[in-house]
Amino acid sequence: MANVTASPSSRSLQDLLKAAGLKRTPVRIGVLEVLVAEQEPLDVAELMRRLPSFTEPVTVYRTLNTFVAKKLVHRVRGEDRSWRYAVGDLTHSQEHQHAHFVCDHCGKVECIQDAEIPSKLLDKINPGPGYTVSHPEVVIHGTCPRCHDRT
Ligand SMILES: [Zn+2]
Ligand SMILES: [Zn+2]
Questions:
Q1: Domain assignment of residue 3, yes or no
Q2: How far does residue 85's CA lie from ligand 2's centre (Å)?
Q3: 35 domain-assigned
Q4: What CATH number is given to the structural domain containing 22?
Q5: Distance from the CA of 147 to the center of ligand 1, in angstroms?
Q6: N or C: which end of the chain has fewer CB within 10 A?
Q7: Cα-to-centroid distance, 35 and ligand 1 (Å)
């Protein structure tokens, strides 16, 4: 991919992959680049549209699963129940969990980076003994500003 050369951002993306113990591949770099540029959750179809046309969907799925496992990327479900993927604040991606907003009108999903989920939440909302919690998910529903202007 010609646009993934020596820009500072692709440099740091490569460092990110390295830090996660992942080999650099064009698809991995490409997927990260798109998600960093968009700064909002995208489903696989939206992601595919922004990647070179020869990119194999199966490779993108595999890449996303790897990124989620390595916590480079988090995922959230929208109104249509399909997973959307986003990068968080990459400077503290391991700890930071934030809320998401889903617009009930257009289905848009947004990361609310400032709305950090308090770690105490899990002490208060605990399913009980014998349950293992992987991560909390806080989704706020409503009307986004764009849809608000239209009504
Ligand atoms: Zn909307
Ligand atoms: Zn998010």
A1: no
A2: 8
A3: yes
A4: 1.10.10.10
A5: 4
A6: C
A7: 20
